[in-house]
Design goal:
Radius of gyration: 14 Å
Strand content: 5-15%
Helix content: 40-55%
Largest sheet: 2 strands, antiparallel
Low-confidence stretches: none
Number of strands: 4
Length: 90
């Protein structure tokens, strides 16, 4: 099955066509449980965003993870993530 991932990570803005070994819903990854989804999300962030692209902050990660071309507002999203994380560290 082919999931059509977001434009995240493509400098040319083209869609990524990636095969995943699980179901797709509306072109995005779908999981049997939230725990499986959370584990895969963590792996994606760790291996691609941190280890491969060396992005270290929400402001650096989110323009690729949730690009404006997909209708997102990365700056607002980054501010929300930062505020949430700041609450965990207090």
């Amino acid at each position: 099955m082919v999931c059509y991932h977001s434009r995240a990570g493509r400098p040319d803005g083209a869609l990524n066509f990636v095969k995943f070994p699980y179901a797709c819903t509306d072109g995005y990854r779908a999981y049997a449980t939230s725990a499986v989804g959370a584990a895969d999300w963590y792996t994606l962030l760790r291996t691609l965003y941190l280890d491969t692209w060396h992005l270290r902050t929400p402001a650096a990660i989110l323009p690729r993870y949730a690009p404006p071309g997909d209708g997102n507002d990365p700056a607002t999203y980054a501010a929300s993530v930062t505020q949430l994380a700041d609450g965990w560290t207090r």
